Amino acid sequence: MEASKEFNAYKRTIYKALKDKFLKTALERAVTAFRKNRDAALAAFPEVVEKRERLQEIKDKVIDNLEDYVGKAREALEKSHAKTYFASDAEAANEILKDIIGTGKMIVKAKSITSEELEFNKVMTAYGNTVYETDLGEFIVQLLDEKPMHILAPAVHVPRERVAKIFSEVAGRQMPTDPKKLAMFAREFLRDKYFKADVGFSGANFITADTGTMFLVENEGNIRFVTNAPEIHVAVIGVEKLMPTLSDAMLGLEVLMRYSGYLVTAYVSMISGPAKTGDIEKVTVYGAHGPKELHVIFLDNGRLKAAKDPVYREMLRCLRCGACMYECPIYPLVSGHWGYRYMGGIGVAWTALVSGGLEKAAPLAYSCALCGRCKEICPAGIDSSKLIERLRKDLKKEGLVPEFIREMAEMVLEHGTPYPKEG
Amino acid sequence: MTKNEKLGVFFGCTTAGAPHLLKGLEDFLSKTKVDYVPMGKDLCCGVPLTLAGYHDEAAEYVKKVADKLISTGITKMVTSCPHCYMMFKNEYPEEFGIELPFNVLHFVEFADELLKEGKIKLKNRKDVRILYHDPCGIGRRGPGLYEEPRRVLESCVQVVEADRNRVLGTCCGGGGLLRASLPKLAVAAAKRKIQDDVLPKGVDTIVTSCPFCTLNLADGAAEIADKEIKVFDLPQFLAEQMED
């Protein structure tokens, strides 16, 4: 049976990951540091715990009326001279992107998990463009030709020794394992790309319906270059990123920063339209110093359908702060190997409904211990265990249950015990 | 317990299938000298079906289980398995519309009750330090039975807390069918939990209130070569601490 074959292949990957000493070292370092930072951020701003309740209400309001909010945001953006689009799925988004970007172009890219849904790098490269990931973690992952293993820290699984090795290959000289020196190498390597690039590509953490303002939260400063230096800025934004107003997004921003383990991030960019000036006789000229064009693509890709489901809709509250993953008993053992494009417990529902489908989600659905620990830390109060239990029901209905599950269920139904009799 | 009460003890297939856990619960019950109807030694509550998404098939099955339990005429049922507990307490009425005509208690509630009523006498062994692990089933995914087991344990030994405990406790990895689907991953989670939570506290004994947690933590402990960590299910641990 297909479902069992998929599951067995997945099981081999997971067991291999369990034995990976590099992975273990890198994850232990990351988990310890992240938990410490997050606890410190929450201790310094204890009111954020109350704010998360307000955030959940706002998010639920948006999920109830997603299409309305998309409409409002598009109207606001168009008023500010941006071009807006609505893509029902990844393929539609890629067609729009090809039209905007064209071929033979250089693209600098900010970290965006939404772009993973589109397989942006693969599609744009095949279309004759060159793509540079500029987030340090994504840059490392791109050089290694691997997939991101965490939504915030894509190279969470790569210890410094491996970074040094791959950077040495790019540099053509031996690089030290000092993280500082490695980060400086990436800085130098990428610096001129921002100004040579034709297009800057980004996602967004929030986008407001009242003003069409996208919020981009970062520490490295690469997003500022990506969204500011090239003449064209293109953003692909999942519709669940909508917030009703600017002040709602500010609240979301505070919650996101603290739960991501930051007292404050170094940068927050707020972008509502292309650059403009009216300094000469009040004549508006677009593209003053920043981009001349801003294109914003709102992406559905299963989100609107999820919004209408009484159980799955909760997944759309996700801010992608990553807090759940570091509290999970499972994720820190195997990182993004438990996942497709979206990872960990919350990633199982995202895989099923948005990026991958039921077949890809099927093996992942049985890696959760259903302990509910993630819900306690989630600023959006998402109960991933509940989402996964619901998904297991759907997998059963669609005949995507791995063999061991089927055998166990049959044992219970026929013999009143899940355990095979000895001998 | 009043005269009209008839107690049932639902062992559950995981406890029944592990000789040391079964003996622990039976020893505890015999030392308390309570009368009870043993049940669930060869009758699964049906939780593997709901965890596997087999709700349609489970409907008929759980009805049969409920009928069997009801036919014994018990007025109160105790189970030491959080999975069975949550199944009877929540899933039977909410998912399958079956109202059981008796109260369902988890073992930690039962032991706490017995202690309050002075029906169990535990040895005073305050020199013994144990770490209590909160099972998710009666904790954050259940009614939050955090204080009951601690009250009982604190009456005989010294309870050491993990830095993350109660609602924030780290899962052992033994639930959600993980021990069936990816056993090595489940055990790796238990090993990590012991390394993170238990070893830094200088404790060599873990007590918990779930057969899955007990078995999984024991498997995790077995993978830690340089230190021997003992893991007990609460009934089993209490049986050893009881005056004969």
Describe this structure in words.
The complex is a heterodimer of chains A (423) and B (244). Chain A has 423 residues and is of the alpha/beta class. Chain A has helices at 2-19, 21-44, 48-64, 66-79, 90-101, 113-118, 120-126, 136-144, 160-171, 179-191, 193-196, 222-228, 246-259, 303-307, 323-327, 331-334, 344-353, 358-364, 373-377, 384-397, 403-415; strands spanning 83-87, 106-109, 130-133, 199-202, 206-208, 214-218, 232-238, 242-243, 267-271, 276-277, 285-286, 293-299. Chain A is globular, with a radius of gyration of 22 Å. A 6-stranded parallel beta sheet of chain A has the order 1-12-7-4-2-3, sandwiched between helices. A 4-stranded mixed beta sheet of chain A has the order 8-5-6-9, with helices on both faces. A two-stranded antiparallel ribbon of chain A has the order 10-11. The mean pLDDT of chain A is 96. In chain B, the strands form 2 sheets. A 4-stranded parallel beta sheet of chain B has the order 2-1-3-4. Chain B has a 4-stranded parallel beta sheet with strand order 6-5-7-8, sandwiched between helices. The model of chain B has no long low-confidence stretch (mean pLDDT 96). Chain B has 244 residues and is of the alpha/beta class. Chain B starts with 6 loop residues before the first strand and ends with a helix. Chain B contains 11 helices and 8 strands. Helices cover 46% and strands 13% of the residues of chain B. Chain A binds chain B through residues 7, 11, 14-15, 18, 327, 329-330, 332-334, 366-373, 375-376, 385, 388-389, 391-397, 401-402, 404-405, 408-409, 412-413, 416-419, and chain B through 13, 17, 42-44, 46, 48-55, 57, 61, 136, 140-141, 167-178, 180-182, 184-186, 188-189, 192-193.
